[in-house]
Amino acid sequence: MVHYLIEFRFHGKAKYKIKKLVYEINRRFRLGYKRAIPHITLAGPFYTNDEKRLIGDFNRLCTKSPLMNFEIDGFSAFENSKVVFLDVKPSKELDEFRWNLSQILKPHCQLRPFDYERDFAFHATISIKLPEDKFLSIRDYIQRKSKLNFKHVMVRLTLLKGSIILREYDFLLRRPLVRRLAKNKRVYAQTLDLLKCHFENKFNPNEFTEERIKVEDKSFIEKLKCVFRKPKTFITSDLHLEHANIIKFCKRPFLNVRDMNKTLVNNWNKTIGKKDVVYYLGDLVYNFKLKQNPDKHKGRFEHWSNILNGEKKFIRGNHDPVKIKLEETQVLQYGKYKFFLSHEPEQVPKDWDGWAICGHHHNNKLEEYLFIDKKNKRINISTELTKFRPVNMDDLIKKIEE
Predict the structure, then answer these.
(1) Are 393 and 272 in contact, with CB atoms under 8 Å apart?
(2) Which of 45, 178, 199, 241 could form a disulfide with 3 if both were Cys (CB 3.0 to 4.6 A apart)?
(3) What is the pLDDT of residues 126-169, one digit of tens each?
(4) Domain 4-207 -> CATH class
(5) Stretch 282-311: mean pLDDT, rounded?
(6) Which fold has domain 214-401?
(7) CATH 3.90.1140.10 in the chain, residues?
(8) Which of 377, 380, 242 is nearest to 319 (CA)?
(9) Cα–chain-centroid distance for residue 340?
């Protein structure tokens, strides 16, 4: 019967350091060279007859969980089983995640007894299945070595079937990955780029839960209510459809441009009804090839515009096609408020004393261009700051008045 494992595999410098240590011990104590994949096992090996349920439970638990931290803090050993390992100190979030994982899998999986223990021994194995003499020698050797200590994050969690990746969850991209995507070098490079930004405090992946990225499907009753409700007014900006580089520039948590296009369009159409009004503040579709071909750029703009729900009122952005006539700016009277709408904040007149709503700067200058800047009466409506979906004007006013 095939077995399953759920484990974390180390990344970056931590992976390099642990592999170097494993190879050093293998060579020094003549253990034979085995392929070293530095990892921490969270469950398994275990067995199940319901693989579909296993995958669903794995994805759902990961989706609800934040990016989790842990620390490697020296060496230790299991005397009874003759295992030498790196000692892992989990964060409270990781400890709770591991416990919830065991409880969710318990009804339909056959786990090992230690997986059901609340006080779980987190560790990363260095050497396993050792004869008594070599176990004692390796244990004494590592205790004399300089203490290995570093902090790390649970970047991806891997569900294995035998030795094959069945699913992987990326806590930076906030996405479950099938084997093909888990092994895709371009997707992995994006993950490492986000990891680097996380350590440099330029990106907080815990802001991007699945609920922030995707709008949930409405029930039949909710869809029926939308047909008969009064039209609403929404506002958004800077989708940058077809723009692959915007994923990297703005740290968008998407696998690729196709994933981004699909998610942004679905979010729009699940939020906006056919009769709703949408003020769009620029940069709908863009890539370098379109910039070189104005006619094709115009065609792609019209293509995406026709797909998106609502009565759309476009304001020109710096990446919109020159061959389409669009408003440069607009004044919107909504309730008791008067808003100046423009793509760039620099277009707002200096003598304007009301609120201004703009896009353009995305999430790259948050210290200067906040989502809602009450002091300067300015709103940055770029889609990265609004859960990648249009915002209801009534909700926006509530936030202004909070």
Answers:
(1) no
(2) 45
(3) 888 888 888 899 888 888 888 888 888 999 999 999 889 999 99
(4) alpha beta
(5) 91
(6) Purple Acid Phosphatase; chain A, domain 2 (3.60.21)
(7) 4-207
(8) 242
(9) 33
Taken in order 359, 276, 393, 261, is the CA torsion positive or negative? Answer: negative
What DSSP character marks residue 285? B
Can you tell me the distance from the alpha carbon of 174 to that of 109, in angstroms, rounded to the nearest whole number? 25
pLDDT in tens, 349-367: 999 989 999 999 998 888 8
Is 325:301 a contact under the CB 8 Å cutoff? no
Cα–Cα distance measured from residue 335 to residue 186, given in angstroms and rounded to the nearest whole number: 47
Pick the closest to residue 372 from 258, 235, 262, 279 (CA basis).
235
- CA end-to-end distance (rounded Å), the chain: 59
Distance CA 402, CA 386 (A): 17
E strands of 67-132, at which residues?
69-78, 83-90, 109-110, 123-127
As annotated, the residues of the chain forming the CATH 3.60.21.10 domain(s) are 214-401
The secondary structure of the chain in percent helix, strand, coil, rounded to multiples of 5, reads 40, 25, 35
Q: Which of 203, 138, 209 is nearest to 169 (CA)?
A: 209
User: What share of the chain has pLDDT > 70, as a percent?
Assistant: 94
Output the six-digit token pair for 387. Answer: 């859960």
How big is the chain by its Cα radius of gyration, in Å?
26
> What is the token pair recorded at 44?
């398994």
Paired sense of beta strands 277-280 and 311-314, if any: parallel
**Span 311-332, mean pLDDT?**
93
Q: Which stretches of 220-293 are DSSP H helices? A: 220-228, 245-249, 257-271, 288-292
In sequence order, the β-bridge partners of residue 177 are 168
Q: What residue ranges in 80-172 does DSSP mark as E strands?
A: 83-90, 109-110, 123-127, 149-153, 156-161, 164-170
